[in-house]
Amino acid sequence: MGRWQRNGGWLSMFALLALAPAGCGGTGDDLPRERISGTVTFDGQPLKKGTIQFQPASQAETVAAGGPITDGNFDVPQKEGPVPGKYKVQIFTQEESRPALAEGEMPGAIQVPKKRPVGLIPPRYNVQTELTAEVKPGGTNTYTFDLKK
Question: Domains in the chain, ordered, with CATH?
Answer without folding.
Answer: 3-21+36-97+114-147 (2.60.40)
